[in-house]
Automatic annotation (TrEMBL):
Gene name of the record: rfbD
PANTHER family documented for this protein: DTDP-4-DEHYDRORHAMNOSE REDUCTASE (PTHR10491), METHIONINE ADENOSYLTRANSFERASE 2 SUBUNIT BETA (PTHR10491:SF4)
Name listed for the protein in its UniProt record: dTDP-4-dehydrorhamnose reductase
Protein origin, superkingdom: Bacteria
Lineage of the organism: Bacteria, Pseudomonadati, Thermodesulfobacteriota, Thermodesulfobacteria, Thermodesulfobacteriales
Family: Belongs to the dTDP-4-dehydrorhamnose reductase family.
Organism: Thermosulfurimonas marina
């Protein structure tokens, strides 16, 4: 089986490459190899490779910046995806497209139940809206696809498009002695990219039915609880002030509740276990942060 990973030098892309199963022939493409918003680039690069499966991790996902640059958000997160859909159709390839918990509006906070694949998206910021547009293009134009919703990712590489990840940001701030103020009224499912990557390979190799899947570590917490655990596992002694989202002003509105779970048999280990292993694995390089 030949698989192409788009965004191979990104945070999730690197772990998809690292978790590659033995029998798979993998070609990793970086942004300098392919521009997904350019149809000619998409067709010339991908038709020459003729992959059975294309995994798209590329996105414009600086949540606040997307509010100021909606054209760019839609160009990459929707038009770029349309180009990939067209090339997949032309080669009869499977598209694995990475999406986000931010397609939901957070209204399920009243039930305190995670969102499942059966819940209807209703995004409330430009990033989420553009990602949902990408999902709809995949779902409504293509038959052979997996839409994989992940959330609050952290991995060794850090997100190139976001300038790191929340884990590194918190540790950096703590080590620099900066005051830490973190929202305690926004809840999500923090997810380790290596765990998500392994599950993505399983979906493909086990030939699970095409469709949408939620792939996150088990459980959920507030960003404040997440930050507390990050410091605890890293052995960093710093205090954090819990604040309400109304006191931590951001350009983009965030869903106050976006924990995910799967009703399609996907179950990853609990987020605390994954975080502990991640921090243990990168602890030797933490001093460089
Ligand atoms: N990070 C997170 O917390 C979350 C991310 N997601 C989704 O997961 C996916 C992966 O995120 P993550 O790995 O963290 O992100 P990264 O920014 O680390 O990876 C994305 C990669 O895609 C490349 N890329 C960006 N734009 C283009 C383009 N137009 N054409 C080709 N390549 C491009 C980037 O290259 P370069 O940097 O050189 O431009 C980068 O290597 C995204 O789809 C995102 O929406 C979902 C939930 C949470
Ligand atoms: C850095 C920081 C953030 N926060 C808050 C702001 C926000 O509500 C939350 C996380 O902030 P970030 O800017 O790291 O992440 P944000 O852009 O909100 O995160 C999202 O990224 C996109 C790509 C996704 O798809 C989502 O799954 C999600 O992970 O924590 C604090 O309260 N204190 C802080 O010091």
């Amino acid at each position: 089986m030949k698989v192409v990973v788009i965004g191979a030098s990104g945070q999730l892309g690197q772990d998809i490459v690292n978790a590659k199963p033995g029998l798979v022939k993998l070609v990793g493409l970086t942004h300098s190899d392919i521009e997904i918003t350019d149809k000619d680039s998409v067709f010339s690069v991908l038709t020459s490779l003729e992959p059975d499966v294309i995994i798209n991790t590329a996105a414009f996902h600086k949540t606040d910046l997307c509010e100021d640059e909606p054209e760019k958000a839609f160009f990459i997160n929707a038009v770029g995806v349309k180009n990939l859909v067209e090339v997949c159709k032309s080669m009869d390839s499977i598209l694995v497209h990475i999406s986000t918990d931010y397609v939901f509006d957070g209204a399920k906070i009243t039930e305190k139940e995670p969102y499942t694949e059966e819940d209807l998206p209703n995004p409330i910021n430009i990033y989420g809206i553009s990602k949902y547009a990408g999902e709809l293009i995949v779902k409504n134009y293509l038959d052979k696809y997996y839409i994989v919703r992940v959330a609050s990712l952290y991995g060794k590489a850090g997100a190139s498009g976001k300038g790191g990840n929340f884990v590194y940001t918190i540790l950096k701030k703590a080590k620099a002695g900066e005051p830490l103020r973190v929202v305690d009224d926004i809840f999500m499912s923090p997810t380790y990219t290596l765990d998500a990557a392994r599950e993505i390979w399983k979906l493909i190799l086990e030939e699970r039915p095409f469709g949408t899947y939620h792939v996150t570590n088990l459980g959920y917490c507030s960003w404040y609880e997440f930050a507390k655990k990050i410091l605890e596992y890293a052995g960093v002694d710093a205090s954090i002030e819990p604040v309400k989202h109304t006191e931590f002003k951001t350009k983009a509105k965030r869903p106050l509740w976006s924990p995910l779970k799967s009703v399609k048999g996907i179950e990853l280990r609990p987020w605390e276990e994954a975080l502990k292993e991640f921090i243990g694995g990168v602890s030797t390089q933490l001093w460089k942060l």
